[in-house]
Structures are given as structure tokens and as C-alpha cells.
Amino acid sequence: MFNIEAYIRDIHDFPKKGIVYKDITPLLQDATATRETVAAFLSFLEGEKIDKVVGIESRGFFFATLLAQELNAGFVPIRKPGKLPYDTYRESYSLEYGEDTLEVHSDAIQKGEKILVHDDVLATGGTAAAACKLVEKMGGEIVQCSFLMDLSFLKGKEKLDSYKVVSLVSY
Q1: Is 23 among the domain residues?
Q2: pTM (2 d.p.)
Q3: 130-144, pLDDT tens digit by residue?
Q4: Contact assessment for residue 107 and residue 86, using Cβ atoms and an 8 Å cutoff
Q5: Alpha helices in the chain (DSSP H)
Q6: What is the pLDDT of residues 66-90, one digit of tens each?
Q7: Core-most of 92, 117, 120, 163, by most CB within 10 Å?
Q8: Residue 3 belongs to a domain
Q9: 37 lies in a domain?
Q10: Any catalytic annotation for residue 59?
Q11: Does residue 24 lie in a domain region?
């Protein structure tokens, strides 16, 4: 596999002091690197049938839509409250200091559909776990959760221990 880390730049003190933001725009700006990244994700799905790819707002949308296209699957956005125009299901989850909520259209996933859940970063795991709960509430069967990066020191994978979890880069 190509060196994906060469296309991820660190931005120190963004969005606030003490945070090192992992910027994936250099990866997205390079067509070959983007294709290689999609191919790497697909290699973990060989032999699997995927009906829908769920992308988590907002950076999860980038590769989720490309994966859906390659898998001949539908794309389902999971978004912050108030961003989707139709009836929704919602799932709230805890953050370090407070709570957040995700929503999905109520007709986006049918019972028994095979689902790939995708986001750019696995951090504490709260967002991904909430997305998985939404999928399962609708009757979807999660085949895999995929992430471009895993910030392993935050132990987010522990919240997803009942799923197959794939990350291309671990920090």
C-alpha cells in the first residue's frame, strides 16, 4: 500500500490550543492518492455484499460516497440535527462535556440491508457508536466500520468491539 500518511498533514492548535488536527485535504487533492485510498478500503471488503454505505458528517462523506459508487451501493448520510429535510430517527450520545445527537432519514435503511459505516477519524468512538445504533434501530446489519485514521490513544475502538473495525492509519 502507498504511504497514506504522506498525504495527511498536522495542523497544530486547530480548532483550539492543544489539538493536533489531522488535515486530509492534501489526500483529497491528489487523484491517485484518493484512488489508492479507496482501493485500500475495498481490499477489506472482498467477498462482502454491501447494500448501503453510511457516511458520518461531514468528512466521512468524502470516501463514503466514493466507496458506495465502487460497491454499487447506496449512500446514506448521517448528520447533525436539523440538516436532513425528511422524517428522521435520532440517536444522542455522550461527549466528554455534554451530549450530541445524530440523525438519519427514517427510510434510508431497510431491514436486513448490509451496511458499511464510514467516517474519517475514529477518536473516542461516541459518534461511530451512535451511528451504529441508528443503523441497527432501522434493521440494518453492520458488516464493517471503516476509518481513514484511528487515534488509538483515545480507545474509541473499545466502543465498537462488537463490529469489525478497519483503519488505514493509526496514531
Answers
A1: no
A2: 0.95
A3: 999 999 999 999 999
A4: yes
A5: 25-29, 31-43, 60-70, 126-137
A6: 999 999 999 999 999 999 999 999 9
A7: 117
A8: no
A9: no
A10: yes
A11: no
